[in-house]
Amino acid sequence: MLLDMAADGFGDRVAVCSIGTGTTFVDLRDRARRAARWIAEHRPAVENVVVVDTNSDAVPILLFGSGIAGVPFAPLNYRLADAQLAALLARTSPSVAIVDDKVAARVGAIEGVELVKRADFLAALDATEPVVDEFGFDPDDIAVLLFTSGTTGEPKAAVLRHRHLASYVVTTVEFMGADVSEAALVSVPPYHVAGISAVLSGTFAGRRTVYLEAFTPEGWVAAARDEAITHAMVVPTMLGRILDVLERDGGRLPALRHLSYGGGRMPTPVVERALALLLHVAFVNAYGLTETSSTISVLGPDDHRTAVSSDDPRVRARLGSVGRPLPGLEVTVREPGGEEVPPGEQGEVWVRGEQVAGEYLDKGGGGAAGWFATRDGGWFDVDGFLYLTGRLDDVIVRGAENISPSEIEDVLGQHPAVDQVAVVGIPDTEWGEKVAAAVVLHEEATASEAEIQDWVRGRLRSSRMPAHVEFRVSLPYNDTGKLLRRVLKSELAARYA
């Protein structure tokens, strides 16, 4: 087990700290073994261990404790509405759910679900004897259940088995590869696959993990400075706001060495801005999905610096790519019939490898011969760099012509007045769908609808020009920085269709 390797290899290092307090790897193993005993005492009435909580020291304890006990770990989105959260909790039954005080007050009694407050759980560990040996689990047993956002229907429970997660960590992380001075700041919530991979990767590398309970750009910058953070991962909506704080206070992040981003499309201007402001930082664009145990393709630090300094448009365009597939993974782009397409042609991204699950609880999944169809549109260039065009479900069909929203968003993102932009298709009686754009301008910047339309018309075919441009104060994002495109589509359709 990863935690045993870490505890035996560098047990006196601090493993986890919520700013100010620290737990060593040996202590973390001890607490995880106590948690395993505590979980075992709830069986056979409990088949899942659920967490409905913000980032805290309890998350890695329960993740590893569940693994030792051989019980699936299921973190849920605590930001869901009460009815939605209660429905998800019911789907985990029979389970024990560790929750914070606010959640405990929001949900009532749920059949088959025992609610335990985080403080009570942590206190119970002190009175629980640790297990000496693991209860024994098969690599093919379920390690983690992660529920999808459910923006297009009922949330699906993605299944990640022990072998999937182990494969991802062992092939992407060097054991004991972190220097004792290294520290990673985790600001993504525990129900996001990046939150799971951060715990596992940090443990295997021997890197100290600092949890930020809830993200604010000011809090993130303060934590990065106070804790001498060397590594961090952010989603697109976070990075721009962090840069705003740094530019306002004229400050820097001298300890930061490595910053990865993912979880959605990162506007190229934001990347360029970050590269210019943080010259000493190695940037990584990591593309992955819950169903693939995290990252499958990476645009690395050298790729970033080469692209941003190049005068060759083909090379500079790589800033908008997600790099090349990780070793050991096969990634292809295919047409609807399943045939692979050549470089330069668009299609659906498919992936295969040991870390790829592509499975959903009670629904199955996974394609023939281990291939997983991601439902992401994309294409490869001749040098093997992968470019994403967005979710296939979001393609705009105008007069039998398929239009990728990302193509128009990339162009609008280059307009000097545009801070954020999202493009969707809305119903149209003549063409089937028409293009609509929601635009957030930079502070104190101005632009008209006609100006935005002319900007697109001068750079793309006329069919790409937005029929409607709505200026907004903000765009709808979920708490992990993913654009709620269907919410926006519904709002714009009600206004302009």
Please provide a written account of the structure.
By secondary structure, the protein is an alpha/beta fold. Among the domains are: 2-172, ANL, N-terminal domain (Rossmann fold, 3-Layer(aba) Sandwich); 395-496, GMP Synthetase, Chain A, domain 3 (2-Layer Sandwich). Strand 25 (432-441), helix 15 (449-457) and strand 26 form a beta-alpha-beta unit. The protein is globular. The relative contact order is 0.08. The mean pLDDT is 92.
Secondary-structure blueprint of this entry?
Layout: H1 2-10, E1 14-17, E2 23-24, H2 25-40, E3 48-52, H3 58-69, E4 73-75, H4 82-91, E5 95-99, H5 101-106, E6 113-117, H6 118-126, E7 142-147, E8 157-161, H7 162-172, E9 183-186, H8 193-205, E10 208-211, H9 217-226, E11 231-234, H10 236-249, E12 258-261, H11 268-277, E13 282-289, E14 294-299, H12 301-309, H13 313-316, E15 324-325, E16 330-334, E17 347-352, E18 359-360, E19 364-365, E20 372-380, E21 386-391, E22 396-398, E23 401-403, H14 405-412, E24 418-428, E25 432-441, H15 449-457, E26 468-471, H16 485-496
Parallel strand pairs: 1-10, 3-4, 3-5, 5-6, 9-10, 9-11, 11-12, 12-13, 25-26
Antiparallel strand pairs: 1-2, 7-8, 13-14, 14-15, 16-17, 17-20, 18-19, 20-21, 22-23, 24-25
Helix pairs in contact: 1-2, 1-8, 2-3, 7-8, 9-10, 10-11
What labels would you give this structure?
497 residues; alpha/beta; Rossmann fold; GMP Synthetase, Chain A, domain 3; 16 helices; 26 strands
